[in-house]
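not sure who needs this but someone in the group chat was asking about DUF1033 family protein from Streptococcus saliviloxodontae so here u go. i didnt clean anything up, its just raw.
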Amino acid sequence: MYQVVSMFGDFEPWWFLEDWKEDIVSVREFENYYDALKYYKQLWQDLRETYPHFDSKSSIMSAFWTEDEQRWCEECDEDLQQYHSILLLTDWQEIPSEWRRPGYSRCNAEGMHSTCSLRR
């Protein structure tokens, strides 16, 4: 089974922090990898048209953002960038390396954004 997961939160999706599933906004499941990939591509295009910045990995995970979507973190005393992310997973695990798509590794943003140093 394949999942296309949409998330919203403080971290890019490839970190898979302990509580990463708390940031899930929606999930759509597919039995066929190529159907899941087609849906992921559709979401990618929609998000690319909406958000000016993105970082996409060949592991079929992407984060999109706008600089004005940040939240204040009391614990680390700074503003944290908020990301709209999508992932294509197989049985809730990262896609195997032989299925990765090198052409999907693209980025139009420079530099690092603030992430909570207490959660790394």
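also Strands lie at 2-9, 24-30, 53-57, 61-65, 70-73, 78-81, 83-90, 93-94, 106-107. if thats useful
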